[in-house]
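Exam revision sheet. Question 4 asks you to relate a sequence to its structure. Input first:
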Amino acid sequence: MSKPETLSTGQAIARSLVRNGIDTIFGIPGAHTYDFIDALYECRDQIRFIVNRHEQGSGYMAYGYAKSTGRVGAFTCVPGPGVLNAGAALCTAYGANAPVLCITGNIQSYNIGRGRGILHELPDQLATLRGLTKWSERINHPSEAPAVMAEAFRQLASGRIRPVAVEAPWDVFGARALIDPDVCVQPLPPPEPDPEAIARALALLQNAKHPMISVGSGAIGARAEILELAQLLQAPVTAHRSGRGIVGEDTPYGFSCGAGIKAWQTTDVLVGIGTRLELQYLRWIKIPAGLKLIRIDIDATEMVRLKPDVGMVTDAKLGTRALLDALASSMAKRPSREEEFKALKSQFRQEIQRVQPQMGYLDVIRAVLPRDGFFVEEISQVGFTSRFGFPVYEPRSFVTGGYQDNVGFGFMTALGVKIANPDKPVVSVTGDGGFMFGVQELATAVKYSINLVTIVFNNASYGNVLRDQRNVYKGREIGSSLTNPDFVKLAESFGATGYRAKTPAQLKTALEQGFAQSGPVLIEVPIEQGSEVSPWPFLHPNL
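Answer key, structure tokens:
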């Protein structure tokens, strides 16, 4: 135990951030958090404080930081409206299993729960936070701060990874006490794989003719083991969002969500590793006759939500390795299916070329973006198409918003990705509608010289809404068309570099020039309203 010190709650929190490896925190100062912000000043050589322009941006930048690195992304905001503004980012982080830490204030401790109408008061802020996070707690006295922060980091590193939040009342942030700042709580170790479950999984896989592996974000730590399992079983590896790139789609075994369905109807055993299996059970839907399901997941509730034939509650790496060890000693080498897989994927690539103009632009982005670069999608026609049309080679390099699919998350998230990965190219693709949710963060990008390249596909509409109104509601268009600024001039007015690209060839040139810049770049791509071919037949093929 270290020597006790007299510290404020804000200082104790800042010390904990440093001790747990936080090097960046996003946020906006406010009266309720002044004492914490002042403590960050004391730690300014160890923690960068990135000040942005809206709390939703703070949360999404922290989310992008976390999603692209696997490390904790931290942000701070004022209570009440600040927390609610950041709520979209927290529920995205919850749905996408990202380690995001929110540090916020509250009204004075003696006024909490009394309904007096104090500045930024919510009826029950802690309950609100607990509805958006895995775990949230209040610090009521400086002496509690080290233990609460230690537990926050334990929650961020144990079990199913999701966001957490810590709040301190206005008067508590600045209160001081003699405390030990170095309290540590070790993450909970994952359960060991169940030998009986391994034996039952082994029996299913030994008899499987056409197994398939499906992976999600929970499987990222088992990348090598999953590729080995795929080669041993001669099984395709499918992924929908965050699992993409665990097995590179430039290998025979890595399948996008669109290509994977071509192997689905003959599948007899499905192995789900660190995934909710949304792809197979909510999108592909038509379950092959006699299908057996094996699941490896750290979250025990997943075994109840979608009951498998064999379930293993354990870490993806431990579970996959145990399965590999059992198979290696008992299963004969299987004939290679690599040529079959290559043919299926090639056929799919040919089919999706009709999704234009999106595929033409995505092919250019893939050609220019290095293998280790990051692609951040958005709820847009190009973003939807990228989920099956943009090949992904490395884990974490395809950054999505998970099942929340929140319009506007992409640009703000991409800023966090670039801040976390300053030496790697990052491209954000967004529609005009989504980009305007966070346009104010161009000021943040300029302030900190963030070389993010953002491509705004401007179709002057909420594209999905427009298509549905024309096709489903017999042309009764309302609220789907948008009036936009000149995005190039807009970027330049902030101090960013602006380009306009009207063809894939022009986009290629603009991208190459953009990645060579030292600051933020915006590329506007004009698209004729309503001209995009729908990507939905490849995203929901059985609807």
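Marking note for examiners. The chain has three domains: 5-179, 195-345, 353-538.
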